[in-house]
Design goal:
Blueprint: E1 10-13, H1 20-31, E2 35-37, H2 38-46, H3 50-57, H4 59-74, E3 80-82, H5 91-100, E4 102-107, H6 110-118, H7 131-146, E5 151-154, H8 160-171
Parallel strand pairs: 1-3, 1-4, 2-3, 4-5
Helix pairs in contact: 1-8, 2-4, 3-4, 4-5, 6-7
This protein binds shikimate-3-phosphate.
Protein name: Shikimate kinase
Pathway: Metabolic intermediate biosynthesis; chorismate biosynthesis; chorismate from D-erythrose 4-phosphate and phosphoenolpyruvate: step 5/7
GO molecular function: ATP binding; magnesium ion binding; shikimate kinase activity
Amino acid sequence: PSSLRINRPIVLVGLMGVGKTTVGRRLASKLRVPFYDADEEIEKAANMRISEFFETYGEPAFRDGERKVIERLLSGPPHVLATGGGAFMNDETRALVKEKAISVWLRADLDLLVKRTALRNTRPLLQNGDPREILENLLKERAPTYAKADLAVDSMEGPHNRTVDRILKKLA
Ligand code: S3P
């Protein structure tokens, strides 16, 4: 455990596959605060998988649900929150996160993102085309916005614990 005490939620942002959920869970356990995963909370609230939600209601409705879930979580006591890769792209969601939390951009290069997303092929945004091309475009398109997070930390090949330690160092 870390002796660090946080007084605001920590929100992890970044592309799918970068490790927000795994890193977030371990970071929360080191800080001894609860961990939440926005995607999981949306699935619970809607009682369906994200892929099903996209298919049934479309992306704009998903972004709306995502913002509501994040708003609810951020109004609670300090915690670590992993967000879906598109959450921080939404102006309202980003404003909320910037106001109420410390945001951390988890960064990784394209090769690593391709490798990690291939392990679990459930992302609706990667279904219609070549995942590498899609991820490359998303990275280009989103990086300038992710860069608005309070901190940026590199997630590299190898154990996620190293990433967690890098975040803790930057927070201290
Ligand atoms: C999305 C990322 C996903 C999920 C949805 C949309 C995105 O979350 O919210 O499929 O727009 O990048 P992960 O980043 O946890 O895969």
